[in-house]
Amino acid sequence: MTTGTGTDQPDTGHGVEHGPGPEQWRGVERALLKVRRVVLLCTLLPLAAGLALLLGLTAGPGWAAFALLPLATAAWGWGALERNWRSWRYAEREDDLLISRGVLWRQLTAVPYGRMQLVEVTSGPLERRYGLARVQLHTAAATTDAEIPGLAPQEAERLRDRLTELGGARSAGL
Amino acid sequence: MPEKAPERGPAEEQEAAPEGASGAAGALGGAEGAENAGASGASGQTEASPLPGRPEGKRLHPVTPWRRAWAPVAGLIAFSMHDFQRTQEWFTQLTTGWLIAAFGVLLPVAAAYGFFSWWFTSYLVTDAELRIRTGLVFRRTAHIRLDRIQAVDVGRPLLARIAGVAKLKLDVVGTEAKDELAFLSERDAVALRAELLARAAGIAPEAAPEAGEAPARELLRVDTRTLVTGLLLMGTGWGAVLAMLVIPGVVFAVSDSFLAGLAALLPALGGVWASTGGRFLKEYDWTVAESPDGLRLDHGLLDREHATVPPGRVQSVKITEPLLWRRRGWLRVDLEIAGAGKDKGGVLIPVATRSAVADVLARVLPGVGLDDAAEVAVAVPRRARWCVPLMWRGYGHGVTDAVFVTRSGLLRRRTTLVPHAKVQSVRFVQGPWQRRMRLADVVVDHGANGWTAARLRDAEEAHALVHAQAERSRTGRREARPDRWMT
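YS: structure for the whole thing
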């Protein structure tokens, strides 16, 4: 139950203050990182083993070195997933929700509460196994990309209830 | 409403009142305005008597069943074209007996289907909704909330014009296709549109059926000469012509087959037609008029189309200035309306002078001046040339009191305006290379399933912009019109 990166702000200018007071950024559960690493290893390790076996038997042991490619990807992915996990954060401000994510391609989405049409909480089998849920916000624009993965179910429900309540209070039409 | 049974009146009002109230408050369910409650499978009980259970409400014009009559005939013709010899053989084998049998069975079946589908289709206007019931076996009832109607079109295709009928199309948020009533007699269609708009505007229910067509004032009419000149000066038409000449030639030279060249020619011909003749037919006699219930657009040479866009429904406006139009100062304007779909993209003005466009634009987006919007757009920093060489000069962005402005394009200049009140969410997007250059994009999403991006802004500025825009779009709604614009 770690809460991501509460203190070390990235350099994308969160230092620029807007609105009343500093935003309270929250990270996502560390279990999300675990799930993603499990998925990463479960796809790449069998792939590496299968490739090594296939190439070793058909083309010769030298060719089996190509199986290191998926292994290298897995090693890189291990660290990349952590960096990506750290980048996920969200802040409930007075009038809008901010979601920030991405390491190389950074994205910050701001959705005013009044524009939310639907708040969705989903949890797949693997996510449930690790005690995770994701919250997705829908506005009238289908291109709105506002999703927070890797929340504890209680937090997801709290967020859903709060967003619904705020959305109702600040509702606006199209 | 002659067919509206008197006892329905109060019941409807009771049922409709809370919906209308919650519609104004819009409790987290704005898009539900298009709830197409599919009530199906009720056919069993409707077969008790010869013509039972005809739903109440008005019926469509009796010519309707014929609208699909041409389809089997066209299919037959296409088939015989496809395999001419076999068809000839068949025809020699056909005896009069067979023919009579075929007609004796097919005709009544087709006629019965046409009749029943017409019989079971009806529509009814209540205080808050338009209800359309269709379906012979699978019943479908669509309840369309009037205060969520985004636009009403009356279409008159060529054949329908000959028959004196028209179809009514409704744009509603959240539905894929337009709900349409086809066909109504022309008079009924116009009267129904007037009534729908009057009720949607919030005119008292008793007065609505008699309110009639709101008076319209013509703002702009595109004369044929301007339209043709404009089309001739468009790059796309000439590009298509060039492609039509070059591609089949190349294909013929390479494959040495006349048929292959012909096969390549046909799609190219289609492209040429779409960007020249087709556009001419569609945009002929383009008229923009203003009335209390919205903007009226009339156009078309063979197929006349009429669209009404109620006030405050415009999600974004795109102004295009092709290279060859610049000397004449002509502009083209496109609209995006929620429910119409991004691909369809409605044209507001196919071609007009700058002052005429500014005139119309001031009515579409109150408080927006074309020149103000163009001036407010600030160019991007010079270092943006390392991100997007050459094209960076075209990018620009600015904000006025009412709209978010983005500019792009070097040869064909495009300016996009999104009213603050229509912005649904704001995004800050930055790739690795952009971060190195301390640049970022700011994207705003609007309700017509579209977005527009202020590209390559300074990163600091972009961050400030995201927050400021979220604030503006939140407050912008307060000054916006209510859904029922006359209440």
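YS: worth flagging: Confidence is low (pLDDT under 50) at residues 1-52 of chain B.
IM: good catch. Also DSSP finds 15 helices and 21 strands in chain B.
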